[in-house]
Write a structure and sequence with these properties.
Shape: globular
Radius of gyration: 21 Å
Number of strands: 12
Helix content: 25-40%
Mean pLDDT: 92
Structural class: alpha+beta
Strand order of the largest sheet: 1-2-3-5-4
Distance between the termini: 56 Å
Order of helices and strands: EEEHEEEHEEHHEEEEHHH
Strand content: 15-25%
């Protein structure tokens, strides 16, 4: 987190350095804390424009080499989302480092007043589906991935481009599970479950998406759609989507968050999404695919909160359920007759 006290919220010169950041000729009226985060410092910047109008901006700051990568990832991810659904994403303006503290790095965007309530299933599903449908099959070279490393909180996500969705998801999960074990500890049972996940579960559930004349059309994913990152705009029926960890992937991967009880997005949100985009074939694997995609968020929580043993246990329980259900991998699947 940036080393700024509430009594010393002077705006760094590099945040005001060009017309592509704060508007030229504006006067900063106030800089105040905005929102809560354990990983970055978040601020609201209120300015008075040259014509006398008032306008607000949002900035977040992180320190060190990782902080630099986090802010770059935030800018590139939000820029990608803004290009697809600009009515739902605060306009990204810039990222860079402070002039006064060169190890401090920032991301700057427009500010949006929001209501801190759980969005309705219909509003959530409509907005997420809009992102997916508008970007469907428009990924660079038709591949899965993203052109920079993005971060879930302060955890880097493996986004190296891959032609295969199964291979891409495997590389993401391997990276996260390796980080989880470094944060906690290795044990034999966990290693056995990981191996079965990579060799049996992932091929069994994701390979059918790309075989038997099926294909996965990459679309842009937010990939962190818990209620804290998608909220109703104040005095509006539209939702604001922010703090993404974007990449190009299978649209259903954005639904994994709905299977985590921590986030209070129940079956109603999945059903509402299905009204806009139908389940991928094979339909009968849908619930298990979502459980597999949800595992990513269980692992993330285990990384972020290493002092809480329950999160590691949830990862073990969820992996065990999938491994026990699919002990034979692809050999256990009855193929569709064409």
């Amino acid at each position: 987190m940036c080393d700024l006290s509430d009594g010393d919220l002077e705006l760094d010169e590099n945040l005001k350095a060009s017309q592509y950041r704060l508007p030229h000729g504006c006067k900063v009226v106030s800089v105040t804390p905005s929102g809560e985060s354990q990983w970055v410092r978040t601020l609201k910047i209120q300015v008075r424009l040259a014509g006398g109008e008032s306008q607000a901006f949002f900035t977040k700051c992180a320190i060190g080499e990782r902080g630099c990568e986090m802010m770059r990832g935030a800018f590139e991810a939000e820029k990608a989302l803004y290009s697809v659904i600009p009515d739902h994403v605060p306009k990204p303006l810039a990222w860079g480092c402070y002039k006064s503290k060169t190890d401090h790095h920032f991301y700057l965007c427009g500010f949006e007043n929001m209501v801190d309530d759980l969005p309705s299933p219909d509003a959530w599903a409509r907005t997420v589906a809009r992102l997916h449908l508008r970007s469907m099959n428009k990924a660079p070279k038709g591949k899965f991935g993203f052109h920079v490393t993005t971060y879930l909180a302060n955890v880097p996500v493996e986004n190296t481009w891959n032609q295969s969705w199964e291979s891409f998801w495997t590389q993401q999960m391997k990276s996260l599970l390796e980080q989880e074990e470094k944060t906690r500890a290795r044990d034999e049972r966990f290693s056995v479950l990981k191996s079965a996940l990579y060799n049996n579960v992932i091929p069994r559930l994701l390979r059918p998406l790309e075989t038997e004349n099926r294909i996965v059309k990459p679309c842009l994913l937010h990939s962190d759609l818990w209620p804290g990152n998608i909220k109703l705009k104040l005095n509006s029926d539209e939702l604001c989507v922010f703090d993404s960890c974007a990449y190009w992937g299978h649209n259903e991967a954005d639904l994994g968050v709905c299977k985590n009880p921590r986030y209070k997005l129940d079956q109603g949100y999945l059903s509402a999404y299905g009204k806009f985009i139908p389940k991928s074939e094979p339909h009968e694997d849908f619930d298990d695919r979502i459980a597999l995609y949800a595992l990513k968020f269980h692992v993330l929580l285990s990384i972020l909160f290493p002092a809480e043993s329950r999160y590691r246990q949830i990862v073990i329980d969820e992996m065990s359920t999938l491994v026990e259900k699919f002990p034979s991998g692809t050999a256990g699947r009855v193929r569709t007759k064409l």
